Amino acid sequence: MTSTRKPGPFGRTLCAMITPFTASGALDLHGAQQLAAHLVAEGCDGLVLNGTTGESPTTTDEEKARLITAVREAVGDRASLVAGVGTSDTRHTVELALAAGKAGADGVLVVTPYYSRPPQEAVAAHFLEVADASELPVMLYDIPGRTGTRIEPDTMIRLAGHPRIVAVKDCSYDFLGTLKVLERTELAYYAGCDEHVLALYAVGAAGCVSTVANAAPAHIAAVLAAYAAGDTARAAGLQLAVTPLTEAMMGAGLPGTVTAKALLARLGLPAGPVRAPLLPAGPETADGLLARYEALPAL
Fold first, then answer.
1. Residue 53 counted as an annotated binding residue
2. 190: helix, coil or strand?
3. What are the E-state strand segments in the chain?
4. Percent of the chain with pLDDT over 90
5. What is the number of alpha carbons within 13 Å of residue 152 lying toward its C-beta?
6. CA proximity to 106, closest of 66, 136, 64, 127
7. Where does pyruvate bind (predicted)?
8. What is the value of pTM for the model shown?
9. Of 102, 114, 115, 169, which is the active-site residue?
């Protein structure tokens, strides 16, 4: 039996897209357009630009806007574009949200302010100010392992009352807290950890924002499509089959940006170098990533 769940506001299979650079480290807009078109053709109905995997800490505001415009030109209306705009400064975040709208984004991804570790009242005020200022729908990004601050479930429930706060990218590693918010709100949850794609979808999430989808978009899309079609055994099998690649990309001690770019380069897709302070993956790591990719089952 097929699923009758309400579709998510930004699609189902979103890729946290890397930002391609040229060999000299400049923004590669042509490469970004090629990669975006490839990802959409392989099953992604949404792309998250300028996020963590997109190296947002080391791209300028101008580069961020140019990337959104270029990718919009490449994919048209075939995929939603969600722009990462989160910073540790509320005023700057608002500026980026407004610029993302002008550049062609369909929504904004706003991470918890980091480093300053604001208390929950300040966290809520930050998100509400961004949502009030922007006309775009907002996806909250809960990733305390990076920011140092959780969006507590009670705070999430409160924020769900804002008409433009519509979704969550969940990297909380708190499944019980996530279930609490899912049960009490209409927020569309997206699994931000690739190992949770199927588990979260099975309890009512809208889909995923996947880093592994940079290299294996069709396989990530197939996991969710199989479950939605009622073939839970196939969905589970596909999730398990992609686990070795997920572990190699996300659990081997290197940032997903580094591993994704190393694997994309081996696959002949636009990627380019990472920007400092990140360092590129070594040849042995790239070889291992390629081996895990080549072991994926045919679809």
1. yes
2. strand
3. 13-16, 46-49, 80-84, 107-111, 138-142, 165-170, 188-191, 207-210
4. 97
5. 11
6. 136
7. 53, 209
8. 0.97
9. 169
Look up 64 and say whether it is catalytic: no
Reply yes or no on whether the pLDDT at 18 is more than 90.
yes
Q: 61-86, pLDDT tens digit by residue?
A: 999 999 999 999 999 999 999 999 99
The pLDDT-based confidence of 6 (bands split at 50, 70, 90) is confident
Q: What letter would DSSP give residue 282? A: P
Backbone angles phi and psi of 287, in degrees to 5: -60, -45
Catalytic residue among 64, 102, 115, 141: 141
User: According to the annotation, is 274 in a ligand binding site?
Assistant: no
- Rounded CA-CA distance 17/81 in Å is 10
Q: Which residues contact 52 (CB under 8 A, 6 or more apart)?
A: 16, 84, 111, 143, 146, 255, 256, 257
pLDDT, position 252:
86
Residue 218, class by beta-carbon neighbours within 10 Å (0-12 exposed, 13-18 middle, 19+ buried)?
A: middle
Task: Provide the phi-psi class of 23: left if phi over 0, else alpha when psi is between -120 and 50, else beta.
Answer: alpha
> Is 180 an annotated catalytic residue?
no
